[in-house]
């Protein structure tokens, strides 16, 4: 099945939709936005607003620095920098020069930074002065790498590299690594430009937004859905410089769109309930939510405050977006329609993908590349189903599948999603346990949503929740039945992106 | 602002992150925020922001892990006001 863009046409007015066209490469993209949005503010901040034109000039200066240092084209150039304007001008500069922007998460420690210099065979590493201490070790050890501190360069601008073709690599993004060591996904110019365009589909008014960006720019959700789609749409993007001052900044910036993980959306919802929508600036229209399973409760509650929350699904390997819910036709438990220019097939329940947005390969990982691809199809590792209307549902991760002693396979995520559909449940985790008689049972641990449970005035909460779970059990196969309910008083262990870390049992 | 007034103000904020309204109504200063009241880590972030907003104070000098009990929070707010 090949998905086409016409699929999304009815959710956007025709004039806007006709503007949604693909840019082949980053240099062509930059030229286009410079021409279209010249004097508009591209990147805003309390200190300085940078227009599209000024941004393009700074990107050209980064190209100039690379050229002066004679950094080889197509070589890997590292960027390690906080979420700020320096990251934007540097990463885009590296891509427009024709090198491969290797985006290193800023929280890496000094030894790992050195390890990345080696693993990715960096010819050069751009770093922000604020983290220069962490670079010292790599500077000493990696003598073939050129280290460049990001600053306001006093150099002539040079033109972008127009010899780049769309299949050339643009960047390397490290995968999440919540389930294993992280890998570097090589994304071509075509992949990130397709990912950028995909972010514009399914929203009625997509141009001229105000973004407030919280996700790390070294993550595809931050890099593509936040930064690049913001630039594509002539919007202004502000960066969260410090999580502690996030809400003060949001009130001032008054974003119209936010891109967040569900745990953060939940905090936003509670604050909005307490202090009104003005707490989020008052202009917010849309929240794009992904990175983990999105509770339907959030989809249902936000519209009460005039905000649409649209769940989506994507991977580092797909330049962020695989699917998203179009505005106005939103199925709370679905991750939406598949975006255009992808071919899909479902093999034994697993989603396989081909398409313009797909990675080339993992950098220097021959074994991983052998297992991740079959005849050009990328195996996502996600178990899915598609309903009659074409909406996609994630039913589990292959790696998380629990194999019972009778050989039956249980997808914990499938059951958790059903449980999380109960308003009173904020989050849950299904695991295989052994009971006091030595039998294997499925257990669910839950965190309850206080704002819903409190007003119910339930005295025996345990019995109440067990009653709800037994209703869920009626919708499950015999071997999927939940036999034990544990109400947690402490949160689950979570990864930096606030995903629950699934306990692994060594076999 | 008296400690009692602060405690009443806190109850309003805690309503959204504590599972049982009765516990909020009877919330005492010696109640432990995480182990007694069951506030999750996501809930703690919300509490911090909500307290700053409600009481008009700046809490950038602490993390919420600095507080064990509701009383610790009350004392902190009192000293800031």
Fold and architecture overview:
The complex is a heterodimer of chains A (507) and B (81). Chain A is of the alpha/beta class and 507 residues long. Among the domains of chain A are: 192-353 and 378-399, ANL, N-terminal domain (Rossmann fold), CATH 3.40.50.12780; 401-487, ANL, C-terminal domain (GMP Synthetase, Chain A, domain 3). Chain A has 16 helices and 25 strands. A 6-stranded mixed sheet of chain A has the order 6-5-3-4-7-8, sandwiched between helices. Chain A has a 5-stranded mixed sheet with strand order 11-12-13-14-15. In chain A, strands 16, 17, 18, 19 and 20 form a 5-stranded antiparallel sheet that branches. In chain A, strand 21 (402-403) and strand 22 (409-410) form a beta hairpin. Chain A is globular, with a radius of gyration of 23 Å. By secondary structure, chain B is mainly α. Chain B has one domain (3-80): Orthogonal Bundle (Non-ribosomal Peptide Synthetase Peptidyl Carrier Protein, Chain A), CATH 1.10.1200. In chain B, 53% of the residues lie in helices and 0% in strands. Chain B has helices at 3-14, 21-25, 41-55, 70-80. The chains are: A alpha/beta (507), B mainly alpha (81).
A few lines on this structure:
The complex is a heterodimer of chains A (507) and B (81). By secondary structure, chain A is an alpha/beta fold.
In which range does the helix fraction of chain B lie? 40-55%
Q: How far apart are the first and last residues' alpha carbons of chain A, in Å? A: 38 Å
**Structure class of chain A:** alpha/beta
What proportion of the residues of chain B form beta strands (DSSP E)?
under 5%
User: Which value, in Å, is the CA radius of gyration of chain A?
Assistant: 23 Å
Q: Find the count of extended strands of chain A (DSSP E, 2+ residues).
A: 25
Strand content of chain A: 15-25%
CATH names the topology of chain B as Non-ribosomal Peptide Synthetase Peptidyl Carrier Protein, Chain A
pLDDT < 50 runs, ≥5 residues of chain A: none
Overall shape of chain B: it is: globular
The major beta sheet of chain A can be summarized as:
6 strands, mixed
* Main sheet specs of chain B: none
Helix run count of chain B: 4
Computed Rg of chain B: 11 Å
> Which parts of chain B are unreliable, with pLDDT below 50 for 5 consecutive residues or more?
none
Question: Which class of chain B in CATH terms?
Answer: Mainly Alpha
- CATH H-level homologous superfamily name of chain B: ACP-like
- Helical fraction of chain A equals 25-40%
Helical segment count of chain A: 16
């Amino acid at each position: 099945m090949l998905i086409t863009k016409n699929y999304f046409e009815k959710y956007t007015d025709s004039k806007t939709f006709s503007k949604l066209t693909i840019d082949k490469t980053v240099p062509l993209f930059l030229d286009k936005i410079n021409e279209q949005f010249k004097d508009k503010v591209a990147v805003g901040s309390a200190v300085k607003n940078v227009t599209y034109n000024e941004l393009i000039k700074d990107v050209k200066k980064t190209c100039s620095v690379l050229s002066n240092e004679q950094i080889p084209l197509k070589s890997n150039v590292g960027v390690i920098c906080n979420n700020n304007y320096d990251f934007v001008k540097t990463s885009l500069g590296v891509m427009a020069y024709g090198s491969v922007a290797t985006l290193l998460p800023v929280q890496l420690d000094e030894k790992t930074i050195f390890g990345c210099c080696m693993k990715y065979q960096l010819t050069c590493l751009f770093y922000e002065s604020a983290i220069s201490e962490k670079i010292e070790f790599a500077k000493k050890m990696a003598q073939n790498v050129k280290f460049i501190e990001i600053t306001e360069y006093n150099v002539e601008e040079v033109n972008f590299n127009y010899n780049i073709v769309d299949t050339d690599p643009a960047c390397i993004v490290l995968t999440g690594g919540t389930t294993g060591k992280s890998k570097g996904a090589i994304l071509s110019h075509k992949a990130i430009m397709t990912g950028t365009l995909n972010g514009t589909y399914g929203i009625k008014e997509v141009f001229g937004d105000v973004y407030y960006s919280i996700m790390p720019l070294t993550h595809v959700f931050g890099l593509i859905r936040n930064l690049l789609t913001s630039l594509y749409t002539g919007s202004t993007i502000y960066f969260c410089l410090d999580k502690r001052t996030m809400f003060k900044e949001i009130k001032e910036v008054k974003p119209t769109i936010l891109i967040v993980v569900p745990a953060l959306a939940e905090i936003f919802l509670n604050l909005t309930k307490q202090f009104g929508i003005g707490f989020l600036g008052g202009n917010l229209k849309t929240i794009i939510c992904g990175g983990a399973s999105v509770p339907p409760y959030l989809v249902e509650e936000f519209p009460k405050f005039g905000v649409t929350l649209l769940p989506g699904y994507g991977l580092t390997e797909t330049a962020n977006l695989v699917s998203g819910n179009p505005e106005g036709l939103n199925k709370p438990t679905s991750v939406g329609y598949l975006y255009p220019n992808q071919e899909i097939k479902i093999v034994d329940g697993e989603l396989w993908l081909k398409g313009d947005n797909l990675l080339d390969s993992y950098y220097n990982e021959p074994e991983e590349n052998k297992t991740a691809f079959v005849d050009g199809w990328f195996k996502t590792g996600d178990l899915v189903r598609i309903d009659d209307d074409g909406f996609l549902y994630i039913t589990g991760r292959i790696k998380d599948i629990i194999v019972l002693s009778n050989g039956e396979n249980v997808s914990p995520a499938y059951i958790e999603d059903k449980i999380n559909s109960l308003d009173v449940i904020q989050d849950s985790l299904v695991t295989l346990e052994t009971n006091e008689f030595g039998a294997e049972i499925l257990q669910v641990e839950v965190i309850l949503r206080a704002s819903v449970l409190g007003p119910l005035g339930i005295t025996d909460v345990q019995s109440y929740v067990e009653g709800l779970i037994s209703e869920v059990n009626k919708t499950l196969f015999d071997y999927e039945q939940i036999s034990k309910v544990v109400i947690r008083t402490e949160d689950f262990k979570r990864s930096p992106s606030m995903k629950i870390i699934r306990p692994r049992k060594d076999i | 602002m008296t400690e009692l007034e602060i405690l009443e103000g806190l109850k309003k904020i805690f309503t959204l992150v504590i599972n049982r309204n009765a516990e909020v109504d009877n919330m005492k200063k010696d109640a432990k925020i995480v182990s007694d009241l069951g506030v999750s880590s996501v809930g703690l972030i919300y509490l911090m922001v909500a307290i700053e907003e409600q009481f008009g104070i700046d809490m950038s000098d602490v993390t919420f892990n600095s507080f064990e009990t509701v009383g610790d929070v009350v004392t902190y707010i009192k000293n800031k006001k």
